[in-house]
Amino acid sequence: MVKWNCKANVVSYGVIINSLCKGGLVDQALNLFSEMIGDLSILPNIVVYNSLIHGLCNLGWLSDAIKLFDEMSNRGISANVVTYNSLIHGLCLNSQWKETRRYFDEMMDRGISPNVVTFTILIDCLCKEGKMEEACELFELMIKLGNKPTVVTYNVIIDGLCLTSRLEEAVKLFDLMVDRGLEPDDFNYNVLINGYCKSCRLDEAMQVFKKMKQNRLKPTKVTYSSLIVGLFQTGRVRTAQSLFKEMQCSQSPDLVTYTTMLDGLCKNHLIDEAVELFHSMEGNGFGARIYNFSILIDGLWKVGTVENARKLFREIPNRGLVPDVVTYNIMINGLCKNGMSSKANKLFVEMEQNGCLPDNITYDTIIYGFLQKHDVENALVLLQEMRQRKFSPNDAVITLLIPSLSVDQLKNLELFAKPIND
């Protein structure tokens, strides 16, 4: 305390401990706490304990938080709603529902009424776990006990309803929130827009987008990204491009938005525009990412520009990047589909030499490629290797394989079909 030139009392310690915990420096806060109760024999109060318990829970150090909670009780300091909220939040984040329920019940038994924060924490975690019936029941209980939901409370339950495809209920709850005099924020609108987009109801998504702007709320990058994904998925390519340009007039797209655009353009075979966007990303400060290379390489294969796809793949090491299994799978698939199974096999070998292990998709792709070239011998070698690695061929491989086999090979096929035990 001397180095901070503060008077050594519980208030001054409490202020510094709280600041350290908020900054994530919980270890330092605990050291100061030990100094406080040890060397100076200053008794901590509920404020100090709440700061520490909250900080520990935020870091996921639940056993330490519970230990401190018990120590606090042993000192005769009664927990309050803030203490329980911190513990419940930490337990919820770690899906420790039994313990969460225990502390919630204990809180009620001690006559400590849960507040809107308590209920919002619980509802949010239930929604994220997909337990919507329990979340809705808790929402009703909250209102019954006289707690008025905030915009944040509505946000979490509307989001949960959208994520579980209960869009009509989400819209009704949104309207109810407005009827009760609460102003929707950008998160509210984003959740609804995303829900409509995922249900391919783009006209309604665009109506919510329009209403959002009418209410003088600025669309965020999340807003634009959700709409662009939905528009591309429903084939409204030009509208997606117009929306991207509109976004650029008011804010700089982030990496997520750029990647969304790149993926949409490639999937809709607008490869020239995708290549232009790919280069503009780098010009706007977004360096090369392997997943963006993979998206563009896949797009180049799909429009038949074979050499451009191979050239871009060779460019990857020059950018300081390493192809991952997705990139290799795209390349192997492209080579096989273009009748270059020997080159695909060479890349398959290089892949593992470069430290990238093949997955189930890799094996399915290259085996299928060999079978299309009527190279049953190499296909069977890889099939055996595949089974040794505990992968299973997909239906397409099996369907193409069986007519290609001789009677003797068919007799041995059972070997490949059986899972290999440890």
TrEMBL record:
InterPro entries in the record: Mito_RNA_Proc_CCM1, PPR_rpt, TPR-like_helical_dom_sf
One GO cellular component term noted in the UniProt record for this chain: mitochondrion
Signal sequence annotation: none
GO biological process, one term: mitochondrion organization
One family name in Pfam for this protein: PPR_1
Coiled-coil residues: none
Ranges for the PPR repeats: 9-39, 45-79, 80-114, 115-149, 150-184, 185-219, 220-250, 254-288, 289-323, 324-358, 359-393
Domain of life according to the entry: Eukaryota
GO molecular function list: mRNA binding
Keyword annotations of the record: Repeat
Protein name in UniProt: Pentatricopeptide repeat
